[in-house]
Amino acid sequence: MIIYGFKGAHLRTAPLPAGSSCPACATPDALKASVYSRYAHVYWIPFFPFSKSAVALCEHCQQGWEEKTLPAELHPAVRTLKKSTRFPLWNWAGVGVLVLGLAGASIAGRYHERDRLAYLAAPHAGDIYTIHSMGDSTKYSLLKVMSAKGNTVEVAANEYEIDDRSPINELNAPEKYSKETESLTVLDLQIMHNKGQLTDVDRLEE
């Protein structure tokens, strides 16, 4: 269940310009205006602000006005204060977290791709290859490297397939692999990778 919604936050309170008089009691220099933000949140984390509002208050007679009921003579000063008030950075916290998460995932993906290519170029016994059935199939399975000597790699095929792009957690058990092995070359593995048939490599002992 995703919890989301909208909240408000006080941004700033400041006196209106000198000489401003209260429309209700005519007291000079007693007016202050407060600016508030409205922001969207997900799990109570501010995601992004989308509006600002303002209210005015006379500190002498305590008469207050919301923005939509402001007397005409207060509009310019309140509008100026509202315009000069910026959204605080924490109102964008969710966007910042999202950007950092995407950047982290991108960097991690690049390192993983680098490792995957290195593992394919120099196979080790125990390496696990994730294999995707060709065509429109959504099935994935595993190949396990039993031995690697020179350019030849002996692999055992997993006897099961599942609808999971990361089947290693469910399928990587000794009893699920065939007792017979198949000989492949490093070039065969690279071709399978280029075709999208070999989608991942895990070196579990590292």
From TrEMBL:
Keywords: Membrane, Transmembrane, Transmembrane helix. The chain crosses the membrane at residues 89-108. The keyword Transmembrane applies. It comes from Hymenobacter negativus. This is Zinc-ribbon domain-containing protein.
